[in-house]
Amino acid sequence: MAPYTLMGILNVTPDSFSDGGRFLEPRDALEQAALLAGEGAGILDVGGESTRPGAEPVRADEELRRTVPVLEAVAQAGLGVGLSIDTTKAVVAQAAIEAGAGLVNDVSALRADPEMASVVASSGVECCLMHMLGEPRTMQLEPRYEGDVVDEVKAFLDERLRFAVAAGITEERIILDPGIGFGKTLAHNLALLDRLDELCSLGRPIMVGTSRKRFLGVLGARAHGLSEPLEAGRRLPGTLATSVLALERGASIFRVHEVAPVAEALAVATATLGGDGG
Ligand code: HH2
Hints:
By secondary structure, the chain is of the alpha/beta class. It has one domain: Dihydropteroate synthase-like (TIM Barrel), CATH 3.20.20. The chain contains 10 helices and 8 strands. The protein has helices spanning 26-38, 60-77, 90-99, 116-123, 149-166, 186-194, 197-200, 214-223, 236-248, 259-272, and strands spanning 5-11, 43-47, 82-86, 103-106, 126-130, 174-177, 207-208, 253-256. An 8-stranded parallel sheet has the order 6-5-4-3-2-1-8-7, covered by helices on one side. Bound molecules: 6-hydroxymethylpterin-diphosphate (HH2). 6-hydroxymethylpterin-diphosphate binds at residues 9, 11, 13, 16-18, 47, 50-52, 86, 105, 107, 128, 130, 177, 179-180, 207, 209, 255.
């Protein structure tokens, strides 16, 4: 058994930064779900609100309309994958849980909706608490940390972990995520990846989501001597490089758009590190 899980991204949004509009029809979403599951995803993360920099908030009724039919269809299809809902709204989380989600991926780490902690606590599902500086609309406008970014993110995750446990969510059900790209410069993202092992001492599984993110476009462009960041569809090499490094630094859940190439890269890395060489 691989010592990690691949989380395939299924955005049911018109405006996600790399796959917006592609899976709005439940039929297309189900097809993508089957593809990602077949490629080795252990979890599918269904999202109905983009959190890309500059994104406008979506109303709960619209988010429910987008996500619930997809969750129901995927649950009924029996693809053998876990389901996650990427939301900051308690009402969406509740409906998603009823539709079959076993994980609530809350990029606000239970801060956006005062009801979220009790929905997660009472339902017994898992949850992912992610670090974000500011909010999506403005988070990439000159993000700044008082001191060391890794220390600050670690202290934040520690505080949110304690908050969640105090709210009745058992520690075993909590995953932590440094929130790559959420209120972070290129240097912040790189420091967090390079020192990801420091977050492991919080004692919970670490999830990372570098997939197709803008900083990979910037670094990729540099590698080719280009001035404009590579477009999202050309960021797979960067996604692979950062996923492998994150694995080596202790990450165990990888949130990605393209499951098959990441699965292959992580299998090779794991064998190389002596963990699963067969
Ligand atoms: N990144 C995105 C969304 N949700 N959740 C966690 N836990 N960690 C992440 O890094 C993360 C996340 C952004 O990526 P994507 O879903 O592809 O884009 P969009 O927010 O535009 O839908």
